[in-house]
Fold:
Amino acid sequence: MSESSTTPQRIRAFVWSGVAVFVAAVALVSAALVWNARQVALADSEAQATRFVAGAEAALNRSLLAVDVLLASTDEMLGLAGAMADWVDPESASQRLRSSARQNLMVRYVALLDDTGKTIASSDPSGSALQVQLPLGFLASIMGQPVSTLMISPPVVSFASSERVIYVARYLRMADSSLVVAVAELPVAALSSVLVQGVDITGLQVTLERADGQLLLSVPNREEALAPTLSPPLATLAAAGGDWNAPARLSGDPGLVVYRPILYQDLRIAASIPRRAALSGWRDQRNAITLTGLLFVAMILAAGWLALRYLDRLSQARVAIAQSKATLDQALASMVSGFLLLDRDQRVVQWNSQFELIYPWLKGVMAPGIPFRRVMEETSRHHLPRATHDERMRWVEQRLAKQRQLEGPHEQALPSGNTIQITERATPEGGMVITYHDVTALRQASAEIESLAFYDPLTNLPNRRLLMDRMQQAIAASVRSGQHGALLFLDLDHFKTLNDTQGHEVGDMLLRQVAQRLKTCVRREDTVARLGGDEFVVMLHELSPNAEEAAAFARRVGEKILRKLNVPYTLGTITHHSTPSIGATLMGGALQPSVDLLKQADIAMYQVKSQGRNALCFFDPQMQVAISARAQLEGDLQLALTGRQFELHYQPQFHLDGRIVGAEALIRWRHPERGLVAPGAFIGVAEESELIIPMGHWVLRTACEQLAAWQNDARYRHVQLSVNVSARQFRQRDFVARVVEVLRETGARPHLLKLELTESLVLDNVDDTIAKMGLLKTKGVRFSVDDFGTGYSSLAYLTRLPLDQLKIDQSFVHNLGVRHTDDVIVQTIIGMARNLELDVIAEGVETEAQKAFLAEYGCYLFQGYLLGRPTPLAGLEALLDAAATVQALPVQG
Structure:
């Protein structure tokens, strides 16, 4: 039979139309995947270039800052500010420079030159005899700077080492106002390794260049010229917008150029990735996707062809159905289930051999055409051997009634102990098919599974599921009877230590022995359960209708458990002493969720843990209240952040002459129901939940936005704002970047922003603190140590920190004139600040006497309720306006 004769033309057209639709879909999806893979490849390369430039900027800034500090410290190290050029001892100065230069591995040598370029001293072994060949005009450009700043030369070839080097220099002023130059020679190779940081990005081209395009160094290195000028300048690329059509800085191929400025001399780091290099991996993906798409098209075409073949064979299948019927008869004989077929008159038509194995007493009775009732009557004699005739007939009627209802499978227990599942289904002709399946093994397995589901396999105690069920029953019974019960939640102290040191097998031995001891401490009607790990629960039933008596009984049982479990255990070859912590709560008297009762006992148990362990503690409702209140407060703080419920109040800071020099920004929470919430009520929770990080960032941004808003108003443009920074916020890796980003986005002037750090925060991880403060100081941000004097500061660390101000803690200010030791501490802080050239401000000034004492000791900046309370923005601006008006009034003669 041919294909055309077996499948209608309309069906063939429908199949091939479907094939065409799927082929078009595969083509569209493949094209979309190729395009998306291309965009992903470009985006990944762009992200790599951006991350690289950010890292290279930070690394190069750190390296140049270290060299800058080295050169700037030459003045103090050699005492140049108090000496003449001819006073400098070349040999001694060279020795000091040599010692200082060893601390920076990048520096080849450091030299001190006079204004003619002659070497006064150097860290080189040749000392003052070193010939420093600076690039033409570089010395004059250094001397021509109005303020001493770090200058960086173009790369040149060193006559001494024949390698490319860069000179970094700044001038220093002598006692007679003459200028000398501190210069350091840096190998280009060392700077290149700092710049590249060991990254491996396909096709990456890195350049360090000036704003006008002058190239200082590149990776890969361009040897054809010492200082070529790249075109176009990076600023032109930025104006044109970043895309993948910009010329790479070294090869000029179309690609992506990402750059960032560094701290010194308008230098920029640029990373270029040619588009061809960025898409090198994408081409393989494109080929793979295309190949896969073609494979899917081939599969779809094959599926269409197979579908037509399938339709052709359907007609052949109809012929095979008749043959299958005969095969079905054979299959019935080999079934593992019993089979019985009845006609519409409920007479036996067919059965299989398995049916006779299940009901062997029917073997001589079964015959085609006998009524099914006759089969049931014979079965009743074996099921009910001692029953009367009437009782057996009632059994038969019940069985036939259940068959007529067809409610689904039902089970029948045989005298042998086997369980048979009977399934009855009606046939289209009105008859019935009945199958008999032996489910004895399945029921035994179900019983075992049920045991595993409700009992702990290690200790054979009830598990959490069975405990919760029994608790619900016990609570309901308690409500009816009025009897109180109790729940004891038990946790073994230091169980993890035993597991870690001796192994889990020993830990399991301890858990089994604990379970046995617990069962000896309670009555038969009580329940001992294991929740998991080393947690057990003891439920005491119907102790007393009086709550106090029930609590006393529960305490006696708990103390008995404590005594029993404090007896040493023999665990194999070792003797182990273990103690429990027990939390208790009463149950009964009213319907209570079992989960809440377990939570109460658990809370009480953790109260024992916090107080030293190996004790019993009853649940105090105040524990739950405190925990719930804390959770509610944390949730409210989350909503406050997203719902803009926070606001800033400002406490003014005054000079002795009455001027307002600044203000401290203080966060306040205006709750929609509780009104204005003081910081003391929520800052602690924010600290522990890490919400303090987004809150602190909000305060910083809001304060900077306010500084930016004041810039165009002559009345307020001088005002500084102080912002408290929490330890969690300061220790974030991106803290410096976020502060710089906020300053850039808001446009606030950095020198008007003062970050207040606590004394403990400053001295925790000093190196990290100095690094972050140093980076922000280069941007102009000021720093103050808050609550100074309350910690244990190290003066050595304090002198290293780039601080601007110390803030005397209000606890010392409060006792001025009252406690002599506080007077001494305040005088010491003020004297130390004066010696370190730091401002000092006192907080918490509440009386004129305190202000007078502080002024007498040399403190002229004040903050406190005497001068002004924290106030919203409008209040602060009103104070500033009033202060400006007073100062503007003419002096009366």
Observations:
- The CA atoms of residues 494 and 748 lie 55 Å apart.
- The chain is about 50% helix and 20% strand.
- The mean pLDDT is 85.
